[in-house]
Design brief:
Largest sheet: 7 strands, mixed
Helix content: under 10%
Strand content: over 45%
Order of helices and strands: EEEEEEEEEEE
Radius of gyration: 13 Å
Number of strands: 11
Number of helices: 0
């Protein structure tokens, strides 16, 4: 099955930006999503993009600040995070799913079959 590797996390100050990357081990028709887990909290949905890149969806908490994108030629998905806040701190996971349709997206964990290990994002105030 596909393996996912997330990278790009780090320590930044509030208001700064980071770009996360997720590389898949194989090329296929996967819908991609980003989730995050803050210390002591449940993992939550952040953003999703359809396999064809035509549809995106965001959690209310990040809409307007984060942008999800993908490059299928590079088997990669990205999460551009701007205007970061301390509450954005957490481990960010990328996930992949085999969608029923090219434009299909999902915002629930149980709809994703494959998960990467995560990359830590820390935003200081």
């Amino acid at each position: 099955h596909v393996q996912l590797q997330a990278s790009g996390g780090g320590l930044v100050q509030a208001g700064e930006s980071l770009r996360l990357s997720c590389v898949a081990s194989e090329r296929s028709n996967y819908g991609m999503g980003w989730f995050r887990q803050a210390p002591g909290m449940e993992r939550e949905f952040v953003a999703a993009i359809s396999w064809n890149g035509g549809v995106t969806y965001y959690a209310d908490s990040v809409r307007g600040r984060f942008t999800i994108s993908r490059d299928n030629a590079k088997n990669s998905a990205y999460l551009q995070m701007n205007s970061l806040k301390p509450e954005d701190t957490g481990i960010y996971y990328c996930a992949a799913r085999r969608p029923a349709r090219p434009e299909s997206i999902a915002n629930m964990e149980n709809m994703y079959e494959y998960w990467g290990r995560g990359t830590l994002v820390t935003v200081s105030s």
